[in-house]
Amino acid sequence: MNDSFGARLKFFRSKAGLSQQQLAEKSGLSRKIISDYEVKKDIVPRDSNLYKLAKALELDSYNLLPNEEPIEINEDGTVSIGFGLDNLPETLRKNIESLAKHYKKDPHEYLCEIFQPALESFLDSEEAKIAKEYPERNIDKIISTESEVVRYLNKK
């Protein structure tokens, strides 16, 4: 199934055990708007409606927004971030290949050794920044919920 706001809304509404009418009443929106969002897959609501729906479903609004790129969840529940030598500018790629050869390492493994600490540090700082700016947001819950909806979308 394609990732869309409508697919996500329907998934979370069903998961909450709500009919369209019940969600409409809980969010203060009309049943027709709920139906339109679920049926017309390319519609994304304006911010005020998005927040009303997220609050009614007890979700972070992030979880209702579709991903621009498909995400695959690993068996252990983590998400892999893909990067490799092919994604780098030629000069940088050649330098890494040369250093890897010098240290008798596989270039891809060497690239991971170089970038992993920096990437982990970046992700930690971004998570801290989000937690500071939005203390009410629970990053672990957002990620867990996102994993659940991605598994659902991949089954369709």
Task: Report what the structure shows.
The chain is mainly α and 156 residues long. The protein folds into 2 domains: 5-66, Orthogonal Bundle (434 Repressor (Amino-terminal Domain)); 74-138, no CATH class. It contains 7 helices and no strands.
Shape: elongated
Can you give the helix content as a percent range? 55-70%
Low-confidence stretches at least 5 residues in length (pLDDT < 50)? Answer: none
Binned strand content: under 5%
Number of beta-strand segments: 0
Q: What is the mean predicted local confidence, pLDDT?
A: 82
Radius of gyration: 20 Å
Biggest sheet statistics = none
Please tally the helical runs, counting DSSP H or I stretches of 4 or more residues. Answer: 7
Order of helices and strands: HHHHHHH
User: Which structural class fits the helix and strand makeup?
Assistant: mainly alpha
Tally the structural domains.
2
CA distance, first residue to last residue: 5 Å
Topology record:
Layout: H1 5-15, H2 20-27, H3 31-39, H4 47-56, H5 90-102, H6 107-133, H7 139-155
Short description:
The chain is mainly α.
